[in-house]
Write a structure and sequence with these properties.
The complex is a heterodimer of chains A (215) and B (174). Chain A is an all-alpha fold and 215 residues long. Chain A has helices at 20-39, 45-58, 64-75, 81-93, 98-136, 147-173, 177-191, 197-214. In chain A, helix 7 (177-191) packs antiparallel against helix 8. Chain A is globular and about 60 Å long. The N and C termini of chain A lie far apart (49 Å). Chain B is built from 7 helices and no strands. The chains are: A mainly alpha (215), B mainly alpha (174). The interface between A and B is large, with 106 and 95 residues.
C-alpha cells in the first residue's frame, strides 16, 4: 500500500528523516517511480477520480483551472505545459464551465472516454453533494451576518489565484513580443473595452495562429 | 412530476450549449425562464439560490442542481445536472479526441503555440472583468493584489490564501 502511493508522493514515511527505514522506503519509491513511468506513463482511472475529487472540493470561489494546473501539470506532470494551455483554450472556446471542460479534456487525453468520465465525476461529485445539502437546509446565505463580507474577500483572493495562474502560464508559454502583444490585446479587448468573447476570438485566434506560424 | 423533469431537462439541455464562457453567460436567461415563464420560484428565491451556488465549491453552473432540487427534489437535481453538463462535456470530449488524434502532426505544435497567448489573455480578461464587476474599493483590490503576488512567488496551497481572503473580507466588512 505504501509503495502504491509512490507516484503521488502521498502516505507517510516510517521513522524520522535519515533513519534506515526512511531511507529504504525513499529508495524503493524512487526506483518504483521511474519504473512506473516507463511502463505506464498514464495514471489509473482511480487516480484521476481521486485527484479531481480533491480539486472539486477545494475550488471555492472559482479558479478551477488554476487548481487543475497545479495538481495535474505542476505536481504530477501528467501533461506538459503547452498541451495544457492548448486544452485551456479549447475549454474556454467551447460552451460550459471552463474548469469542468478542462477536466474532460485532460481525462480524454490521459485515458480516453473512461478518463473523461472519471475526471468529470471526480470534479462534480463533492460540489454537487455539498450544494444539495446546503440547498436542502434551505440556507438563505444572504441573511447570515458576515457571510457576504467573507465571500467578497474570498472572491477577491480567488481572482488573485487566477492572476497568479496566468502569470505562471505566461512565463512558460509567452516567449516572444508578438505573443505578448496578442495576450495583452485579448485581455484588454474583453476586460477593459468590454467586447464580446466571440468577437475577440474571431479576430485574435487567426492573428495569433498566423503569427505563431511565422515565429 | 414527469412533466417538470422534462421541462428541467429541456431548459438545461438548451442552455448547456449556449453557456460559452461559463454559466454566468446564461444565468439571466435562466432566471427569466425559471421565475417569469415557469413560476417555479420568486425572484428573491432565485437570488438566494444564486448566492448559495457562489458559497459552495465547484463551478457556478451548479446553480442548476439547486433549481432542480427546488422544483423536483433529488430526481430534479439529477436531471438538471446531467442536462446541463452532458451536451457541453460531450462536445469537449469529441473535440479533445480529434485533437489527440493529431497528436504527432507537425502543425499541432504551431497551433498550440498560437492558442497559448489568446488562452492566457482570456484568463487575465476574466480577472479584470471580475475585479471591475464584483470587488469594490481599495481593500478588495489590495486583497486581490496580495493574493496574486503570494500565489505567484510561493508554492503555498491556494486554500490558505482563499481562507485568509475570506477572513480578511469578514474582518474588514467588505
Amino acid at each position: 500500500m505504501m509503495i502504491r502511493n509512490a507516484r503521488t508522493g502521498a502516505g507517510r514515511l516510517p521513522g524520522w528523516p535519515g533513519s534506515p527505514g526512511y531511507c529504504l522506503v525513499r529508495a524503493v519509491r524512487f526506483l518504483f517511480d521511474g519504473l512506473m513511468h516507463k511502463i505506464a506513463p498514464h495514471p489509473s482511472l482511480s487516480e484521476i477520480v481521486r485527484v479531481f475529487l480533491m480539486i472539486g472540493l477545494q475550488s471555492f470561489g472559482g479558479g478551477m483551472s488554476a487548481w487543475i494546473r497545479r495538481e495535474v501539470v505542476a505536481r504530477r506532470g501528467w501533461m506538459g505545459e503547452q498541451q495544457f494551455v492548448g486544452g485551456l483554450a479549447l475549454a474556454q472556446i467551447t460552451p460550459g464551465a471552463n474548469g469542468v471542460n478542462l477536466a474532460v479534456f485532460i481525462g480524454t487525453a490521459l485515458r480516453g472516454w473512461a478518463g473523461a468520465l472519471a475526471a468529470l465525476v471526480g470534479m462534480l461529485l463533492a460540489p454537487v453533494a455539498v450544494i444539495l445539502v446546503l440547498g436542502a437546509g434551505f440556507v438563505s446565505v444572504r441573511t447570515v451576518p458576515g457571510v457576504e463580507s467573507a465571500m467578497a474577500g474570498l472572491g477577491a483572493a480567488a481572482i488573485g489565484l487566477n492572476v497568479a495562474n496566468g502569470v505562471r502560464m505566461m512565463r512558460r508559454n509567452v516567449r516572444s513580443a508578438t505573443a505578448a502583444a496578442v495576450m495583452v490585446v485579448t485581455a484588454a479587448a474583453i476586460g477593459v473595452a468590454g467586447f464580446k468573447l466571440w468577437m475577440v476570438l474571431i479576430v485574435m485566434l487567426p492573428v495569433s495562429l498566423v503569427l505563431a506560424r511565422r515565429a | 412530476m414527469i412533466a417538470i423533469l422534462l421541462q428541467l431537462a429541456g431548459l438545461f439541455l438548451f442552455l448547456s450549449l449556449l453557456a460559452v464562457g461559463g454559466a454566468n453567460a446564461v444565468v439571466p436567461e435562466m432566471q427569466r425562464v425559471v421565475v417569469d415563464s415557469y413560476h417555479w420560484m420568486s425572484a428573491r428565491e432565485f437570488v438566494d439560490l444564486f448566492a448559495l451556488s457562489r458559497v459552495a465549491p465547484g463551478p457556478g453552473s451548479l446553480i442548476v442542481a439547486l433549481i432542480g432540487q427546488h422544483v423536483g427534489g433529488l430526481a430534479g437535481a439529477a436531471v438538471a445536472v446531467v442536462a446541463m453538463f452532458a451536451p457541453s462535456c460531450l462536445l469537449v470530449h469529441l473535440a479533445a479526441r480529434a485533437w489527440q488524434h493529431f497528436r504527432d502532426a507537425p502543425w499541432r505544435d504551431r497551433v498550440e503555440r498560437g492558442l497559448a497567448p489568446v488562452a492566457i489573455g482570456l484568463v487575465f480578461a476574466s480577472a479584470i472583468a471580475l475585479t471591475r464587476g464584483t470587488a469594490e474599493g481599495i481593500a478588495a483590490y489590495g486583497l486581490t493584489g496580495v493574493a496574486s503576488v503570494v500565489l505567484t512567488v510561493s508554492e503555498i496551497s491556494p486554500l490558505w490564501v482563499l481562507g485568509g481572503g475570506a477572513l480578511a473580507g469578514w474582518w474588514l466588512g467588505l
